[in-house]
TrEMBL record, chains A, B:
This is Xanthine dehydrogenase family protein molybdopterin-binding subunit. It comes from the Bacteria. Residues 24-129 form the Aldehyde oxidase/xanthine dehydrogenase a/b hammerhead domain.
């Protein structure tokens, strides 16, 4: 009897299927592509945060040998592009609204010539007064950043329950204001596109993107072309973090240059350009008021947010919406009220960023809970657990919690860090003080916001060698979407992982897919892959039944064959069955399409509805050391626990979780976009100080498997949640160490020292 | 009320959908592709028809700057490749069997260096005696071209009815022997491939091919790779005519070079190489014996064929099979006997060619009928019509004739040429004599020979702009497959032709398809396109029913909308419906896959079976002028009538028919591969004299629409049949003009003059 060789890798540590190509330097990122006859693009950007373009003279640039085109706003489509608001031109016309806005674009025979040409474009600006802060923007006298409108881009108000009555019933009410800053996505690969015209005049782009479907939709709208006349290939993508969704103009400008010149055009941001062009996270000023009973039960919550979208709103309204309400669902909140205002300023646009608005509010909320816990003489862990929503419950906003491992995450994280002992221990002597902090978080896995579909389609083709092609439009931006799809299909058909091949997303050939956002790919793409793989399996079994002369119920897929369960020697290879599927009367290639859509609902105009098929949770505990002489904060230890439902590939989850932790440490302690007079002052990796290896301890993490009923094998979105608790855990640990509460991120040495001075002053008084 | 705007182009003259790209020089043929880091390949070929390779020294070639690899047989897989017989190495090892056989291959930084390197490869040959004719090959003493085998590559024998009894009952029995020669396919684009390795190590090739599916299968077998590790893209293909199916080694060598170097490799035949590498048509010596009644009824037919496949048999066995039996089905043949023998010689291989064996036998048969008609005092037209099989009948080999326009084709052609009057008229005076000739032909539309599937699959995607992508693996090699698919889908959905886009064949993304052969694409691909388009239409109508609040039966697709038949103002655009199909609960992209397979049967081992879903017919009449002083034959007029069932695109059919006529004129009068001592003596377009415009009259043609019950809208394969009657029509016209019967193609001036001398000798005697 043949021994069962189970090929499944589910739950095992699996190197990513495209890792080898990347490690060997063979993966083709958009900037690596070389197309015959290719021109090189470069973009001239406004040096002023606000100015009138009086005149542009491109003649000197055009006269440079090798320059093929110089485009200005006059050459770009008149239509505006944008997400909520169509308010942005591909190239500015008449006025520029932030320092860095795209004013002109060049295509030339080399990148050097293209950049030289930028210097020869004569732009006469009339500088105008710039609105650089939300406070200025909200001044009633302030002129509109956009003509004919005030500076409120978007406003959200909702109340559920009775917040005032809740506060009245509370034993403790605490209100404080927190400010968060913009973080640059910091992917290794800047935005890059190669755009070309097909022989039939269609526009084809290879680009670094989180969604080929959305990239095509936006290119079509912005360039005023039918979507069918555009083909978008996802090139290998070196990180996205929200920045490569729909908010940058890179592929629009490349497409415009290709269309104008009729030649392929490569447009790759250098790092400064990418700092200027990429949406950074939305800075929010959050006033949080929380009412609790003496026992720590939350009875009322009020949130006021003023968020800054910069000059163009992009996805910032959606981000702010998340800040305003997502964290309400983590606890059993009976009464909530939110008022959030998004304002325009003459600064580079902000928008989608890993965590999508969760980081901002969870910094406030987790800081707040620690503060109130101390006032109530409680452990903040106890408050989190007391209030934590449970599986099977429906949150205040209608979210149906199918699974939650929040309490387990908290326990795992605090146990790992030595919570109780270290909280009780002395904070150290001398200049260096140690403290521990924790924070809890939740996130969506999928989100019914785009159109009213939150599904995915996967096509599975079983080739005549028994190996399988998987077509999906869901983007792998490094997080492992391709590996996940391969694992699912290989598991369902019981074939080796390397017998699967995921064909990269291409709008001509891939099924429509929303793309990589809202931690949706594993749950939506994974479920669709299960549907498709099982359809393929059914076809294989049906065909095998005729060959093995046994009913389907007596057959199984095992180790690349279909065999009789009770008589495993009696089998057909998948290769043989796939060949038979084609090469017979009535045959056709074995190719099936499986779709899955979340059984969720779009939230209504009262912000009510179960928007995601599953919700992920995480908790983090850290230990920090604060140098009270220098103000320097060092993270000594970190343990983040991720409730991903089921870890399909723990290696990938730990990798993503570690990345999230580093990005959170950066946001909390080091990274801050510095604008001086509205101009980016630190748009490079030397001055914009992301956390480097010396700033990061050996990261630790754990996985909680809460087994979501809607997830593929129980899985939910993994590791995006893990970026959320980092900053408040660090802030809480700093407080634990030195008693200084910092509500204004990042936690710089200056703020630490100022806090210590203030504390000393209070003691001295 | 909206007026009905019917978008269908069926039956209209439509420029090919890819014509503009070709005319503007933008279409990318394989040789046009430039891939970054691409090397250039070149192939060293044997100068001897038969030799032992004593030694190969590649060191001097490898030492040339820019040379990256020099491969010989020792570097090629040990496995043999081929169709019926696996008998050929990618690069010869030990022995070469024809002058032109691939011995070594080079990859270098430029094509010039690669070709220089060929001169530096030192090959020591020991020349061996070569078998250059079938007669030598069949000598019992002859050594085998392939070791351990005699020189009979394949043999076919069958008898149906009682041929001897038939001949005994005949009033007239005539036997004669006809010889036909090899014709080079003569496409404008020689064979070309770019092969590269994907980052994950898969082999990807862009190649000029008639079938990506078959190219992949053969690459996989010859390079010993799983098919899933190979991706074949069809580059724009500049003609195939059977030559770009599975018989040349171009993409195998390119693939081998790419695999060995790890770099992209471009390998483009120059014209001489293409003459050596392409399969030319199979030369056959046909002895035909026909018995007729006094009234011209065919009562018995016996065929003996000796065919030459050259050194490797490729598809020659299938070609000879067609010669041996296909024409039996055109008439009501009661008794037939065939014996066909395919032999190896040390000459360049022969194989598939437009008409696929039909040209050879129909030259004999039509010549024969003219001869016997004269002997019986009948019009050959009358004999054809008397014997012509009718619709609804089953032929002697089991072919079920769903439709035939043969008689109408004959009438159309002879009427156009002025048959009766010109037959009766004086043949001219002086040196220039005129005559008319006609011939009739049949062909398959599809052929159940490969595996047991003769179907096709088409995927139709309706995009959110209401435009449609069509995925098919069927190859457009210039004949118009893409245009046909576009027409069918546009008709079914009633959208403009330019709202369709046919995605070029690609084994990773296209449905499996047999490819362009046996005039199968319109009937198989067209029917599959109907199935898929109607599936898409059903989905659109169902969705529209919910929007328009009418049952599906009351709706129709019209002019890019779905509308209420009785209230045409009430409508939804396809764009709106396609968007709704995705962006709703339970949505997915509107993408359907439709398959169609012929309801036919593989012929049994007695060569019996209805192998094709439809059979196409054609007839041609020509007028020639023979210069009796120079022997030169000039075609003055030609009318070919094509029974294509239904002309989906008459412009394309006339284009193809004209091409077929020119190729037939070339074969009949001008083209002949000249081997001298087994070596190609005229492998270039100066010496291999294809018919040029001065040799071709203003071609005329007509279409007969017999409306086949199995065809899409009645259509059958068009215009391949049209190559078949040309040569015998010309031979018959020459006979009519000067009384010289030439049975040995081509009809050269020398043969005409020799015939005239012989005639004069007979008269003088």
């Amino acid at each position: 009897m043949t021994s069962r060789i189970n090929q499944s890798t589910l739950g095992q540590d699996v190197p990513q299927v495209n890792a080898r190509a990347k490690v060997l330097g063979r993966a083709q990122y958009a900037g690596d592509l070389k197309v015959a006859g290719m021109l090189h693009g470069a973009v001239l950007r406004s040096p002023y945060p606000h100015a009138r373009i009086v005149a542009i003279d491109t003649s000197a640039a055009l006269a440079l040998p090798g320059v093929k085109a110089v485009l200005t706003g006059a050459d770009a489509p008149r239509v505006m592009w944008g997400v909520h608001h169509k308010e942005r031109r591909i190239l500015a016309e008449g006025v520029v609204r932030f320092a860095g806005e795209e004013v002109a674009a060049v295509a030339a025979a080399s990148e050097e010539i293209a950049r030289d040409a930028l210097d020869h474009i004569q732009v006469e600006y009339e500088e105008l007064p710039a609105i650089l802060t939300p406070e200025e923007a909200l001044d009633e006298e302030a002129p509109g950043v956009h003509p004919g409108r005030n500076n409120v881009s978007h406003e959200i108000r909702f109340e559920r329950g009775d917040a005032d009555a809740g506060f009245a019933s509370a034993d403790l009410v605490h209100e404080a204001t927190y400010t968060t800053h913009a973080q640059y996505p910091g992917y290794l690969e800047p935005m890059a596109t190669v755009a070309a015209l097909e022989p039939n005049g269609r526009l084809v782009v290879w680009t670094s993107t989180q969604s080929v479907t959305q990239a095509r939709l936006r290119l079509a709208a912005a360039l005023e072309m039918p979507i069918s006349r555009i083909r978008v290939h996802q090139a290998t993508t070196g990180g996205g973090f929200g920045g490569k969704l729909v908010e940058d103009a890179n592929n629009l400008i490349a497409g415009l240059l290709a269309r104008k010149t009729g030649k392929p055009v490569r447009l790759v941001n250098n790092r400064l350009e990418d700092f200027l062009a990429a949406p950074s996270s939305v800075p929010e000023r959050i006033t949080l008021k929380l009412g609790m009973t003496r026992a720590g039960l939350i009875v009322a919550k009020e949130v006021r947010i003023v968020a800054d979208c910069g000059a163009y709103s992009g996805l910032a309204a959606e981000v702010m919406h998340v800040s305003a309400m997502r964290s309400d669902n983590m606890h059993r909140n009976p009464n909530v009220r939110s008022h959030a205002t998004l304002v325009y300023t003459h600064t580079p646009p902000h928008g989608a960023f890993r965590g999508f608005g969760g980081s901002q509010m969870l910094f406030a909320l987790n800081s707040h809970i620690h503060t109130m816990a101390e006032q109530l003489g409680l452990d903040p862990v106890a408050i989190h657990k007391l209030n934590a929503i449970g599986a099977g419950e429906t949150s205040i906003h209608g979210w149906q919690i199918g699974s939650t491992g929040l309490k387990e995450c908290i326990d795992q994280a605090i146990d790992a860090i030595g919570w109780e002992a270290k909280r009780a221990a002395p904070k150290g002597t001398g200049a260096r003080r140690r403290g521990v902090g924790m924070a809890a978080a939740m996130h969506v896995s999928g989100n019914r916001t785009i159109g009213n579909w939150d599904g995915s389609t996967v096509v599975v083709k079983v080739n005549e060698d028994g190996r399988v092609f998987i077509h999906s439009g869901e983007a792998d931006m490094g997080q492992g979407a391709m590996t996940m799809l391969s694992q699912v299909v290989a598991h369902e058909l019981d074939i080796p992982l390397d017998h699967t091949h995921v064909v990269p997303p291409d709008t001509d050939t891939s099924p429509i897919a929303i793309g990589s956002l809202a931690s949706r790919v594993t749950i939506a793409g994974g479920n669709a892959a299960i549907v498709a793989a099982r359809m393929a399996r059914d076809k294989l079994l049906a065909l095998a039944a005729t060959q093995l002369e046994r009913p389907v119920e007596q057959l199984e897929c095992a180790n690349g064959t279909v065999r009789v369960i009770a008589d495993p020697e009696r089998s057909c290879t998948l290769a043989m069955l796939a060949r038979l599927h084609v090469w017979r009367h009535g045959g056709e290639g074995l190719q099936v399409s499986g779709s899955w859509d979340a059984r969720t609902q779009m939230h209504d105009d009262q912000v009510y509805g179960n928007i995601a098929p599953a919700y992920s949770f995480a908790a983090q505990a850290v230990e920090v050391e604060v140098d009270t002489e220098t103000g320097q904060v060092t993270v000594l230890d970190s343990f983040v626990s991720d409730d991903c439902g089921k870890a399909l590939n723990p290696l990938a989850i730990h990798g993503q979780t570690n990345g999230a932790t580093v990005q959170a440490i950066g946001w909390a302690l080091y990274e801050q976009l510095q604008l001086e007079g509205g101009r980016m002052a630190n748009g490079n990796f030397a001055d914009y100080t992301m956390a480097t290896s010396d700033a990061v301890p050996m990261l630790r993490g754990g996985i909680v498997e809460s087994n979501d009923p809607n997830g593929p094998y129980g899985a939910k979105g993994a590791s995006e949640t893990a970026i959320l608790p980092g900053a408040p855990a660090i802030a809480n640990a700093v407080y634990d160490a030195i008693g200084v509460r910092i509500r204004d991120l990042p936690i710089t040495p200056e703020k630490v020292l100022a806090g210590l001075r203030e504390l000393q002053g209070a003691r001295d008084a």
